[in-house]
Write a structure and sequence with these properties.
The complex is a heterotrimer of chains A (about 525), B (about 350) and C (about 325). Chain A is globular and about 70 Å long. The two termini of chain A are about 45 Å apart. Chain A is about 35% helix and about 25% strand. In chain A, the strands form 5 sheets. Chain A has a 6-stranded mixed sheet, sandwiched between helices. With about 525 residues, chain A is of the alpha/beta class. Chain A is built from 19 helices and 22 strands. Chain A has 2 domains: about 240 residues, Rossmann fold (3-Layer(aba) Sandwich); about 180 residues, 3-Layer(aba) Sandwich (Rossmann fold), CATH 3.40.50. The N terminus of chain C is likely disordered. Chain C has about 325 residues and is mainly α. The chains are: A alpha/beta (about 525), B alpha/beta (about 350), C mainly alpha (about 325). Chains B and C meet through helix 1, helix 2, strand 2, helix 4 and helix 5 of B and helix 1, helix 2, helix 10, helix 12 and helix 13 of C.
Chain lengths: ~525, ~350, ~325
């Protein structure tokens, strides 16, 4: 085993954020090296620098001992560094062979494609991987797992020495994972260095040789997998004290229940989720990406259809079929993707503020009372100290934090009693975060009930009166503010179905908590 | 001179639009632009007026010619005839026509504009008599004589009309077709449309002529918009459904072109007799190689020429006959070299 | 932050100035033609320009709503024809009173629009396809219902006056027979519809949602707005405007011309886009559309009256449409 990649002293700053500072990473030939950390720890940024998507601000990268500059993704490929993204980048309408060699097709003369040669070469690579995929099959006809294998084949066709896999098992079934691990083991035996990014702790144990932990854009440690317990890795991932200014207060259980969700199901994304929400409570929803938290929120809000489940508001069962119904029942939803689902960027602050409650600002024939709208907007802008030159300002010219305030204003204007915040501080700078937190606490004190989905554990711990933790569509645990710690949340967040059974046998401590 | 004026106008417009679309709300830049534009406008003015003084000795007599179409070779031949007459009688004409014969509203607007340009007389091939009536009434009010051309306008305001007798011409084509097929068998007529007067007249002229032949069976009339591709498809469909068809009459240039395509593609040359209307390169070539037996031709050049000539007569207070028959002629491959025909036919 | 805010405020003023510029360029174009071309500047010609803008303008007004939602309606031209054909059948053939025929014309347009809206909003068919289908359907129906015969309103002498008469002239003549303000009714109707459109677009919930859907349809839906229903409403309104255009067209030609109309939607879009409405939705004004329609017709009339050969008229118009829209894009890019 010789050194393949060494990254040292890597710095990278984005406007307003120091994404990486003095980070390092090392990869040997024939090694599977796992890279772990919370969302936003800097894993992806690190790998994007290695593959030429971003340029580093400082530091150096060595390939087989020689310093290299990776200017763009193409250059990375030529150096034998390849990445397989979580979202697959294949042309669904083309065949396997066409996808593998896109941009590098064998030709007859300059103009004509030599499909036979392409297919033969594709077959060769697929055979080498020991997988049975017809090179002429359309990619859209393959399962996600097989598509991923096509991506791996594509990477290998570049004679990859380094293969980076970002959450490769996120969409795979257990048997598919076994197949993937077989291929990874084969590649390792052939001397390929593999960087394996995953949130799934049990997998790391199975497949990786070493683990590097990152946190908040810094390097924590690199350990040999066989020497550590999963628990230790988790505490390395979350072990920081910033933001955590004591715990939020516990739920006041004497307050009435405003929302009860029972046995909510929707395909593979939501599995039998039940929970309740008290008046004036902030209920945190924690979990890793893809755990199904947003899906639950959208289902309750009527934005997506769900298969089964009952929803009660103030004790009465309701049937929510569209966002319109949800709003009528006093539920407001603040999407994680503000620009796509939250605001109309091209319209002004006033219009966005009254968007959900236009009927309160117009008469029976639909005539708008502009004066009332301006008054209400002024009120909301003042209440949240939104920074905007005036109400006529287009929302796209506001900062993320102020856009969020406009959306909160929209739902307050609608007088919603239940507010679902999906990643309320995503893309918002640190100063504005504090303001949003203050606002959430004020809303809860004023008797609004809040569901707050967040991928940032410190945020969850700081704000939530109670915490629901999800993993792969299931609600794996509910913690009170007092008992919640980053470790306990991570425990439930990584509690996969198969693991949970094993876990239950060995220590039932988690369940009783 | 026209080109110069055109350039002047286009540049001025471009500047104006540049100003209109504005450049990012910078006040200083915009002001400068405005100044530039004004200058250009002044330039344009000077050039234009200079041009006019050189050409216009004495009072200009202006006769707008508003036709039914513009792009079609037929109308281009009309235009040439009109321009010839304009040269001969020393008058200025403009030749305008809507992009398609369906655009009645465009023609009405062209008429309105022409009327505002102080014309001495007006030549008009009306797409729809009712639609142009307000404009005609206005012309009458202003004492502007109106000459019709190509097809008749049903109004006393029209001083005279220079046109082909389409019914008679189509009847001639019908009789010729009957002769070619031995006065028996199946035939049909492919017409450009069922709304225009020429379409109706040519269809009816042909169908009436066919009444003289009891042994000829006339199939359903087809309408192909004068569009080559559409007419081809229609003709092929009818030929496939009735393999025993003996003859087809294509009632305008596009229609007969479709028939020619159909017969050639289905390898029926010689088995199905074709008779056409008008001229044009496709038809002339087909007549030369025998695919089409013969055709009736209007005389578009004469139509244009006679219309402008009649307009000049009307301006000078001379008597204009109500119908100016511009003639038609049946021609076959034998006649193609006839110098008299060369003037009538257009490629 | 405050300095930044002031800069942003300045941009809004630039927007206002933009509208002023659009109008002033129309005036400028008018002045240029008046100077360059001898017979351009006259009351009659000016009125004819406005009259020529009427049908295109009313179509463009309806189209403005649809385009602001980010959609398109390719059936404008043929639905207009179909509406007037239905009116022609009812009035000319069946002897239905004219006023009822007028209502039927508008209702027919609205129903076609509603159908468009239904397929687009409920069946999720892309607007381009749904309205393309409607264009073909109404084109066929116009011919099929009439046997391809034009319908004439010659038995109703008053019908022609709907567009061609002049209420203003009659009114002032009644006061003093020597006075005259011969603005054709078609132009008055155009301006009336424009004011109506402006009010709907800026003062009502309907208009506000039109913008909202064009700006971010999903965010609007997630705000609890029944976007499907409002969208159907927008297409229906557009259809109703199209019906009004059908009345103007029929009255102008004193007939329902069964074969015309296809292609007129493109002229209407040109007016909308020149007027600064974004084809991608979320932005647009009625005033802009009216200016766009007038600009197109000033241009066309001016070129014609300058005796520019027809082929060059087309070249110039096409070039200017592209140029105007390009400049608009440049302006937007600068504004950011």
């Amino acid at each position: 085993m010789s050194e393949l990649i060494r990254m040292e002293g890597i710095d990278k700053a984005f406007p307003g954020v120091q994404a990486l500072s003095q980070c390092r990473f090392e990869l040997k030939t024939g090694e599977v090296h796992a890279l772990v950390g919370e969302n936003g720890a800097g894993k992806s940024t690190m790998m994007k620098i290695l593959t030429g998507v971003y340029t580093k601000d400082a530091g150096s990268i060595f390939l087989k001992g020689k310093e290299i500059e990776v200017k763009n993704p193409r250059a990375a490929q030529e150096l034998g560094i390849n990445i397989i993204h979580q979202e697959l980048n294949l042309c669904q309408h083309l065949t396997v062979a066409q996808n593998i060699f896109i941009g590098r097709e064998s030709r007859v003369g300059k103009l004509f494609l030599n499909d036979k040669a392409n297919e033969a070469k594709a077959k060769e690579i697929l055979d080498m991987m020991n997988i049975d995929i017809n090179p002429r099959a359309r990619v859209s006809s393959l399962t996600v797992a097989r598509q991923q294998m096509v991506e791996i084949a594509k990477a290998l066709s570049f004679n990859a020495d380094v293969l980076i896999m970002d959450e490769p098992t996120a969409a795979l079934t257990d048997s598919e994972i076994v197949e993937l691990f077989r291929i990874i083991n084969d590649l390792r035996a052939k001397g390929v260095g593999i960087v394996y990014i995953s949130h799934r702790m049990d997998e790391l144990k199975k497949i990786s040789d070493r683990i590097t932990v990152m946190r908040d854009g810094t390097y924590v440690d690199t350990v040999n997998t066989k020497d550590v317990e999963i628990k230790q890795i988790i505490s390395m991932m979350v072990g920081r004290q910033i933001y955590v200014e004591g715990h939020a207060k516990n739920t006041d259980k004497s307050q009435p229940l405003v929302l009860e969700v029972k046995n909510l199901n929707s395909g593979r994304q939501i599995k039998n989720v039940s929970f309740d929400l008290h008046k004036g409570e902030i209920l945190g929803f924690a979990g890793l990406m893809g755990a199904g938290r947003t899906e639950v929120a959208r289902a309750i809000f009527g934005a997506d259809k769900y298969d089964s489940g009952d929803i009660f508001i103030n004790g009465k069962q309701v049937h929510i079929k569209s966002p319109q119904d949800a709003v009528a029942h006093g539920i407001g939803y603040l999407s994680e993707d503000r620009k796509r689902y939250g605001v109309a960027l091209g319209l002004d602050v006033a219009t966005n503020t009254v968007m959900a409650s236009m009927s309160n600002f117009s008469n029976k024939i639909g005539w708008i009372d502009d004066e009332a709208i301006q008054k209400q907007t002024d009120k909301m802008v003042a209440a949240m100290s939104t920074k905007t030159p005036n109400n006529k300002q287009r929302v796209k010219n506001l900062s993320g934090g102020n856009q969020q305030k406009v959306i909160i204003g929209k739902w307050l204007t609608r007088d919603c009693d239940i507010l679902i915040f999906d990643e309320p501080t995503r893309g918002i700078d640190v100063g504005a975060k504090g303001e949003i937190y203050k606002l959430l606490n004020e809303l809860a004190d004023a008797g609004k009930s809040i569901i707050m989905i967040s991928s940032e554990l410190p945020e969850i711990l700081r704000m939530s009166h109670r915490i629901c933790v999800m993993c792969e569509g299931r609600l794996t645990g509910v913690l009170s503010a007092q008992e919640a710690t980053q470790e306990s949340i991570m425990h439930f967040a990584t509690m996969r179905e198969t693991m949970e059974q094993a876990d239950a046998e060995h220590n039932n401590q988690g369940e009783t908590k | 001179m026209k080109a110069k004026r055109l350039i002047a106008v286009v540049i001025t417009l471009a500047m104006a639009i540049a100003l209109f679309a504005g450049c990012g709300g910078n006040e200083t830049t915009t002001t400068t632009k405005a100044a530039e534009t004004t200058t250009t406008a002044a330039d344009g003015e000077t050039t234009t007026e200079a041009d006019e003084t050189t050409t216009d000795a004495g009072e200009e007599i202006y006769i707008p010619v508003v036709s039914k179409g513009f792009q079609h070779k037929f109308w281009q031949a009309v235009k040439q005839g009109a321009e010839k007459a304009a040269d001969e009688f020393n008058v200025t004409i403009t030749f305008d026509g809507p992009p398609s014969e369906k655009d009645v509203d465009v023609q009405v607007q062209m008429l309105d504009t022409a009327m505002n340009n102080n014309p001495a007389a007006l030549c008009l091939a009306a797409l729809d008599t009712q639609a142009v009536l307000p404009a005609l009434e206005k012309a009458q009010e202003l004492g502007i004589p109106v000459i019709g051309f190509d097809s008749g306008v049903d109004s006393d305001i029209i001083v005279g009309t220079a046109a082909t007798d389409n019914k008679a011409a189509a009847a001639e084509a019908g009789h010729q077709l009957a002769k070619l097929i031995g006065e028996e068998g199946k035939v049909f007529v492919l017409v450009h449309d069922q709304t225009s007067l020429t379409g109706i007249h040519r269809r009816d002229g042909f169908l009436e002529a066919m009444k003289d032949y009891p042994k000829i069976e006339v199939l359903e009339t087809q309408y192909g918009d004068g569009d080559h591709a559409k007419s081809t498809d229609l003709a092929k469909a009818v030929l496939s459904a009735n393999p025993d068809i003996k003859g087809i009459f294509g009632a305008n240039e596009g229609s007969i072109a479709g028939c020619i395509n159909a017969v050639t593609e289905m390898d029926l040359v010689g088995k199905v007799q074709l008779v056409g209307f008008d001229s044009g390169k496709i038809l002339l070539d087909a007549i030369k190689d025998g695919t089409v037996a013969g055709a009736v031709s209007q005389d578009p050049y004469a139509i244009g020429y006679e219309a402008v000539k009649a307009a000049v007569m009307a301006i000078n207070g001379e008597e204009v006959p109500e119908m100016i028959d511009t003639g038609f002629r049946w021609y076959t491959a034998d006649d193609l070299d006839d110098p008299e025909l060369q003037v009538i036919l257009y490629e | 932050m405050s300095a930044k805010s002031i800069a942003k405020g300045g941009r809004i003023n630039a927007d206002t100035m933009q509208k002023f510029l659009a109008f002033s360029s129309l005036v400028l174009l008018y002045i240029i033609f008046s100077v360059v071309t001898p017979n351009f500047f006259s009351l009659n010609n000016t009125i004819d320009i406005m009259r020529a803008s009427a049908v295109q303008g009313v179509l463009a007004l309806g189209g403005t709503f649809v385009i602001i939602t980010g959609g398109i309606d390719l059936s404008l031209g043929t639905v207009m024809t179909f509406s007037s054909v239905i009116m022609g059948i009812l009035v000319a053939d069946m002897g239905v009173p004219v006023w009822l025929g007028l209502i039927a014309c508008i209702v027919t347009g609205a129903l076609c629009g509603l159908t468009n809206g239904f397929f687009i909003a409920k069946m999720k068919i892309p607007p381009f396809i749904a309205t393309l289908g409607m264009m073909m359907i109404t084109r066929g129906l116009s011919l099929a219902t009439t046997g391809a015969n034009n319908k004439y309103f010659t038995d109703y002498p008053g019908f022609r006056l709907i567009a061609n008469g002049s209420v203003t002239d009659s009114v002032v003549k009644a006061i003093n027979p020597s006075w005259s303000i011969p603005i054709p009714n078609a132009v008055l109707i155009l301006f009336g519809m424009a004011i109506l459109g402006h009010i709907i677009l800026t003062k009502t919930v309907f208009g506000r949602y039109t913008f909202a859907m064009g700006s971010n349809e999903e965010a609007t839906r997630l705000s609890g707005v029944n976007t499907a229903a409002w969208k159907m409403g927008v297409y229906t309104l557009c259809g109703a405007f199209t019906g009004v255009a059908g009345i103007l067209m029929a009255s102008r030609l004193n007939s329902a011309q069964v074969a015309q109309g296809a292609g007129m939607e493109l002229d209407a879009f040109a007016a909308v886009v020149i007027g600064g409405t974004s084809m991608s939705g979320g932005e647009g004004t009625i005033l802009g559309t009216i200016i766009g329609a007038l600009l197109m017709n000033v241009l066309l009339n001016g070129l014609r009256i300058s005796m520019i050969p027809q082929e060059w008229q087309w070249v110039a118009t096409g070039a200017i449409v592209i140029f105007a829209v390009y400049m608009d894009i440049v302006r937007r890019r600068k504004r950011g």
